[in-house]
Design brief:
Elements lengths: L2 H23 L5 E3 L1 H12 L4 H10 L9 H16 L5 E12 L6 H11 L2 E5 L4 H15 L17 E12 L10 E8 L2 E19 L5 E7 L4 E8 L4 H6 L3 H10 L6 E9 L1 E8 H4 L28 E10 L3 E2 L20 E3 L4 E7 L4 E8 L6 E4 L2
Parallel strand pairs: 2-3, 4-11, 9-13, 10-16
Antiparallel strand pairs: 1-15, 2-4, 4-12, 5-6, 6-7, 6-9, 7-8, 8-14, 10-11, 14-15
Helix pairs in contact: 1-4, 2-3
Length: about 400
């Protein structure tokens, strides 16, 4: 198997652990993040960590170091990032990390070389006393790397910070089966018992899709393919059953659906109603990761002496932001093309899937078997949700 497949199980495990924590803390809120981008950033940081801090980062990311060597982990990420960052057919993915270190501190040569070689990371020296300048430096870098999709990643920083780790991912894809814009109309979306919002609802009713109504669980699952090497699972719990589905949302369940949705009998003509929406999530990782096993890293017990010898570092601040735009063409607006409108026959179609209530989204890279994004759309009209503790 390819090196990236070796790290896929641990990455999937981390993805769902992170999801559970956020979901339990912010029930009834949109969630959207890129587990892969977080895992890659911290695997990179582990190159600068020593002794207990190093093993704690890798174990926190889900790696069992008795089964997988550290070099296997880094080789896996190197292959994964290389594969994802290749220019694709109608698919563009950029996963990256950047480390900002106080300008008084020197990066060690080995750390510089390793992070560049394996993680294609960018390392910067910055003057943290100039808070406004530093915030702008970080935000400008991320804005440039994500083609302007992620702006204002960082809004505040303290002056005593020595280091900031940011990770970002840019993903732009086109549907294999696009929607026709002229058929998108405003429809009701039922956020909860008391809240209904209007959303632009896209419609397809002449296409075949891979989907199933789960025999054992109160939900339906739709697999939609992008051009290139990515696919998305939209998981629609029955009315009021979101919590029940979240509780069984595991890597194994995802693989079960993935395997089922390659069987011909789940490929059928479908009347599909899917909202056009944007959501994003912003997460302050130094507040979240300590509860996922990264206990020392953000404390004075951190050993990051592989990054610099000059001063005792702790991973003081770490930010993550992910955004998703879903529209007729795909994710992120793409150039308009004109489609021939088919004549719609009067035949009745018994297969209907209406995403008019909260649903889950899993964006998956097929060749590397990685969860690129994981999210929950509770209210598609609230694009931005910031998590502050």
């Amino acid at each position: 198997g390819s090196p990236s497949l070796k790290i896929a199980p641990a990455n999937a495990d981390f993805a769902f652990r992170f999801y559970y924590l956020i979901a339990s803390e912010t029930p009834g809120k949109n969630i959207f993040f890129s587990p892969l981008s977080i895992s890659a950033a911290y695997a990179m940081l582990s190159l600068g960590a020593c002794s207990h801090s190093r093993s704690q980062i890798l174990e926190g990311l889900g790696f069992n170091l008795t089964e997988l060597s550290e070099s296997d982990v880094h080789r896996g990420f190197q292959h994964l990032l290389h594969t994802l960052n290749l220019p694709g057919h109608g698919l563009e993915t950029r996963v990256g990390s950047a480390l900002f270190l106080s300008h008084n501190l020197k990066f060690l040569a080995k750390f510089l070389n390793d992070t560049m070689a394996v993680y294609e990371a960018k390392l910067f020296h910055t003057n943290f006393y100039d808070t406004v300048g530093t915030i702008q430096l970080i935000n400008d870098h991320v804005k440039k790397e994500t083609r302007g999709k992620i702006v204002d990643l960082v809004s505040e920083l303290k002056k005593d910070v020595l280091m900031v780790l940011v990770n970002y991912i840019y993903f732009k894809a086109l549907w294999e089966k696009p929607f026709i814009s002229s058929r998108t109309t405003p429809k009701d979306f039922y956020v909860d018992e008391n809240t209904t919002v209007r959303v632009p609802m896209m419609l397809q009713d002449q296409e075949h899709h891979w989907y199933l109504h789960d025999r054992y669980l109160p939900c339906s699952v739709l697999r939609m393919d992008y051009k290139g090497d990515a696919t998305v699972f939209f998981i629609l719990p029955n009315q009021g059953k979101m919590r029940e589905i979240e509780e069984v949302l595991t890597p194994e369940m995802l693989m079960r659906w993935n395997n089922l949705l390659r069987k011909r009998n789940f490929y059928k003509k479908l009347e599909l109603h899917l909202p056009k929406f944007s959501i994003s999530g912003s997460y302050v990782l130094d507040q979240i990761l300590p509860r996922l096993g990264f206990t020392d890293l953000f404390s004075k017990w951190a050993d990051l002496s592989g990054i610099t010898k000059q001063q005792k570092l702790e991973a003081s601040k770490s930010f993550h932001k992910a955004t998703l735009d879903v529209d007729e063409a795909g994710t992120e607006a793409a150039a308009a093309t004109s489609f021939a409108i088919k004549f719609f026959s009067a035949q009745t179609n018994r297969h209907i899937l209406r995403f008019n209530r909260p649903f889950l989204v899993v964006i998956f890279s097929t060749s590397t078997q990685s969860v690129l994004f994981l999210g929950k759309v509770v209210d598609p009209t609230k694009p931005h949700h910031h998590h502050h503790h």
